[in-house]
Amino acid sequence: MPTDDQSTQTTQPSGPHGEPLRPMTAAQVAAAPMPYMRWAKAHLSWEALGPESICLGMSGLEPLAAQDRKHLGLLPPPDVGAAAANLKSALATRYDLTPEHVLLTAGTSHANFVAYLALARGGRIAVESPTYDAHPRLATAVSAHAASLRRDPRRGWRFDPASLAGVIDDRTDLIVVSDLHNPSGMRLAGEDLDLLVEAAERHDAYLLVDEVYADLDPVPRESAAHRSPRVLTTNSLTKAHGLPDLRCGWILGAPDVLARIAGWDDLVHPALPPAPMADAAAFEPQARERLATARARAALRSEQVNAWVETTPRVAWTQPTGGLTGFLLLEGLDGDEVAEHAWETHRVRIVPGSFFQTPQALRISFDVPEADLARALAAISDSLSTLATMAALA
Ligand SMILES: Cc1ncc(COP(=O)(O)O)c(C=O)c1O
Question: 126-142, pLDDT tens digit by residue?
Fold first, then answer.
């Protein structure tokens, strides 16, 4: 897609993640998690080889020529290096950072995985609870010990300071939170962010803020990555921008921390597909305007749910400060049973709170047409009252 803003376009030679091609010392290569890939990225790219060389180092067929692809009904080959470098540059512009503060990934999931892998494998991770289920499970996947940082529903899902003090210590490698919080949709309170940054700095840990919903905050804020070299943030175009098919994500952080993560990423994603990155780079300058519409629609739906909560027995929530999701706390009912009843009886699908470490809850995503939302909420009301009656009779 063409864009009016060509200021971020670059033709500088760069590696498959848009990184500048810099020679590495033998010691740097040897110390990398995958020395061969580090060496290959610096020495085997077409840009690094130059026109007069002969390369016996490539391990795949020469990429198909445009003519062959056309013959096969495929799109022409995209410009690999420029797509990644242009996306990095567009993101750096958006965040008022340099491209060295951006590491491209295939979505937030990939971003989170490589960050955990690089910074906390076999170590100790303090992760918010409740949270998106991947976070505690990623800790297990990288053989780390996970401890829960409690978010308190009675304080609008703010962190319980006692839990912060009790869980984070000098052994902690990584602290993980989301902003906006998934499932509750609450903004990370400024004072809580201060406490978390201070704790990371004091204990030589890193703070990872998963900002995949942050762009849907009605009060746009600076990314937490600006706060300290000990903070990194992860994000993508999946949730807040309606471009899940691109699988374009990123990590913002201090260049030396990103270099560590990039080394581990060699084992996972030696290169990213260039066509989605080119689309993402073209989309970036238009993102802000589109977000305003998405935020306004989500705010209306949130009001609709709030009005329902206020008049419905056995359910409570803290109305989200933004985003598309809310966490309904149930009084005396099991979220799995309510979710199953709503599906079996009304064909309304809701996520049980047990997937967010909270069995007496439901996570709803309310960015659906107004009439569908009204019908779904009426269905949940019916499921709540039917199951409460059955429980009373049992
Ligand atoms: C907090 C959080 N982080 C990350 C993800 C995954 O994002 P992506 O599609 O960019 O991998 C999700 C998906 O629901 C999420 O809720």
Answer: 999 999 999 999 999 99
